Amino acid sequence: MTTEAQLEAQFADTIEAKDRIEPRDWMPEAYRKTLIRQVAQHAHSEIIGMQPEGNWITRAPSLRRKAILLAKVQDEAGHGLYLYSAAETLGASRNELTEKLIAGKQKYSSIFNYPTLSYTDVGTIGWLVDGAAICNQVPLCRTSFGPYGRAMIRVCKEESFHQRQGYELLMTMMRGTDEQREMVQESVNRFWWPALMMFGPPDDDSPNTAQSMEWGIKTHTNDELRQKFVDMSIPQAEALGVTFPDENLKWNEERGHYDFSTPDWDEFWSVVKGNGPCNDQRIAHRKRAWDEGAWVREAALAFAEQSAEAAAPAQTGSAPGQTGSSPATTTEETAK
Ligand code: FAQ
Fold it and tell me: Which long-range contacts does 295-299 make (Cβ < 8 Å, 24+ apart)?
């Protein structure tokens, strides 16, 4: 019989070898809990993150831009669903997690509590918010929990397409009128600091980083990824012809990185605690959608139960050598 100590040793060896932990493997309860917390927050962010841009679908300036935006917002829904599925393999159902989100017991990314005041924000979110998300999520493709890492591979491919569409939108506006260029700069000014805050609190104020790095859930610290994002965004801003609202941004030869000012961490914690400009609105909207969707969930469950009942006698009733009715036939007959 395998003892608890042997299971712990196996788990430690898997982490050490940078192999994956899979849902049926033994894992420490604290590892499971940390993963559920992070994956749930990530899933909630994707779903709540549909709201700021969804706000502009009916007001997109052309059919082409509307089709692009619709597809992007639908992709975010898909990301949320892969992530809820990953959380489900850890024993946390989507219903349970959504109810915790609505009750304020789980978090989602601070960035989605800021409003989208003009259509330009769709471009800025694509460029900076999806850009920050990719920076954070590419390393998560190698996270230690298998289903989370595998979900991230597809998510990252789609996010990089989102980032390019945002940049292309802004580039198009920068080639337009003075007023359009001003709109881009104004939008970038509003989103720069909240985008930097997406990476989480500074390392010396991040209670989860050390343990998550030890377990291979995180492979980089919050500050490392924030610096990477600053370094990659500056040449992109120069090519676009915009500036970031930070007079201390400058190349530091010695460090081999750009220096930048400290974000306003009081603002960050205030937003995380529920006091951002749109927190109430975002949760109220999510609650409304969840309540209004109850009948769909009930209907899907009733259909699944009915199909299972109809399929059961067909399987047991088949004589040897007979294949019985196919699930598709059974379902069709049940539906009639
Ligand atoms: N907002 O100890 P740490 C996207 C919380 S997806 C709110 O450093 P950790 C796609 C943190 O949970 C964006 N809360 O925590 C898209 C913890 O609270 P807790 C989401 C935050 O987990 C684009 C406490 O502060 N991405 O944008 C934030 O080690 C466009 C202490 O923090 C992910 O979720 C924050 N920004 O590191 C969609 C990526 N930061 O739970 C639509 C996966 C921290 O102890 C449109 N997550 N907190 O009560 C991660 O990589 C990590 O969880 C971090 C935080 C880095 C976010």
Answer: 297/95
Residue 179 belongs to domain spanning: 2-270
Q: What amino acid is encoded at 273 in this protein? A: K
Closest residue to atom 33 of ligand 1, CA basis: 42
Find the 78 Cα to ligand 1 centroid distance in Å.
19
Q: Report the domain count for the chain.
A: 1
The whole-number pLDDT of residue 312 equals 87
Tell me if 165 CB under 6 Å of ligand 1: no
Is residue 80 lining ligand 1, measured as CB closer than 6 Å?
no
Identify whether 248 is part of a domain.
yes
Tens-digit pLDDT profile for residues 200-209: 999 999 999 9
The answer to whether residue 316 is domain-embedded is no
In a domain, residue 279? The reply is no
How many whole angstroms separate alpha carbon 225 and alpha carbon 46?
19
Condensed to tens digits (0 to 9), the pLDDT of residues 90-127 reads 999 999 999 999 999 999 999 999 999 999 999 999 99
CA nearest 113: which of 287, 273, 289? 273
Report, as an integer, the average pLDDT of 217-231. 98
Tell me, yes or no, whether 306 lies in a domain.
Answer: no
pLDDT tens-digit readout, 238-255:
999 999 999 999 999 999
CATH code where residue 20 lies: 1.20.1260.10
